[in-house]
């Protein structure tokens, strides 16, 4: 019948999610979409950029009262002027953060100046995009799958305060305020209604905390 013929001719999504570099008939990279779904299973994070700096906050969820809170690192310092907040797989976030730290130090050693937030974010996005089988003879092989994490990278450089978001597709976008994670839509609605470009850094800190508090209440 037609349904069988259609499946025979065009296949199904399951035929295209085994390889990270194969598009489905709908033009989708399913492995990247699965990585995006992993972010939705994480905890939320929010960032706000103002004239005085950037405020970042994360929801650190404890599954047990016996867990040491400091052992769950959802936010990290990359350099003296750059930090990030993560949502998604913790181990993937740690890999990207360690890479970013090395890139920042290499830039400082080579050029005797701090790396810009944009340049560092681009390096992280390039790494996030470098997944697949790769060259079997290469010393450093790429990730076998997309990184299941989204980062908010914020900092202050020669251009002033900057806030960027990265995702598993290798996309980087610049924001004034952004929420990521399972409650990203709720956070974004709150930010769009409460964000102002003339907020002070203290008011930005209060705003990011209010956003996370609202998501936890919901």
List keywords for this structure.
218 residues; alpha+beta; 5-stranded antiparallel beta sheet; 3-stranded antiparallel beta sheet; 6 helices; globular; disordered N terminus
Describe the structure.
The chain has six helices and eight strands; from the N terminus they run ααββββααββββαα. The chain has helices at 2-10, 30-40, 90-111, 117-129, 184-194, 201-217, and strands at 45-50, 53-58, 75-79, 82-88, 149-157, 160-166, 172-174, 177-180. A hairpin with a 5-residue loop joins strand 6 and strand 7. Helix 3 packs across helix 4 (117-129) and helix 5 runs antiparallel to helix 6 (201-217). The model is unreliable at 1-11 (pLDDT under 50).
Mean pLDDT: 86
Q: How many strands, which pairing sense, and closed or not: the largest β-sheet?
A: 5 strands, antiparallel
Question: Which structural class should the secondary elements be placed in?
Answer: alpha+beta
Please give the radius of gyration in angstroms. 19 Å
Topology overview:
Elements: H1 2-10, H2 30-40, E1 45-50, E2 53-58, E3 75-79, E4 82-88, H3 90-111, H4 117-129, E5 149-157, E6 160-166, E7 172-174, E8 177-180, H5 184-194, H6 201-217
Antiparallel strand pairs: 1-2, 1-8, 3-4, 4-5, 5-6, 6-7
Helix pairs in contact: 3-4, 5-6
């Amino acid at each position: 019948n037609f349904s069988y013929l259609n499946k025979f001719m065009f296949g199904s999504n399951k035929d295209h999610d085994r390889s990270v570099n194969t598009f489905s008939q709908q033009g989708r990279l399913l492995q990247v979409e699965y990585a995006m779904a992993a972010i939705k299973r994480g905890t939320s994070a929010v960032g706000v950029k103002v004239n005085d700096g950037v405020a970042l906050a994360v929801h650190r969820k404890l599954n047990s009262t016996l867990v040491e809170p400091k052992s769950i690192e959802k936010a990290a310092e990359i350099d003296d002027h750059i930090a990030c907040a993560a949502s998604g797989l913790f181990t993937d976030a740690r890999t990207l953060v360690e890479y970013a730290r090395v890139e920042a130090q290499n830039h400082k050693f080579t050029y005797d100046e701090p790396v810009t937030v944009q340049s560092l974010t681009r390096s992280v996005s390039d790494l996030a995009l470098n997944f697949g089988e790769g060259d079997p003879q290469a010393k450093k092989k790429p990730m076998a799958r997309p990184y299941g994490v989204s980062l908010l990278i914020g900092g202050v450089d020669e251009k002033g305060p900057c806030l960027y978001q990265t995702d598993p597709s290798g996309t980087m976008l610049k924001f004034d305020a952004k929420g990521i994670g399972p409650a990203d839509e709720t956070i974004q609605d709150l930010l769009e209604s409460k964000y102002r470009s003339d907020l002070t850094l203290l008011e930005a800190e209060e705003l990011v905390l209010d956003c996370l508090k609202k998501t936890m209440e919901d």
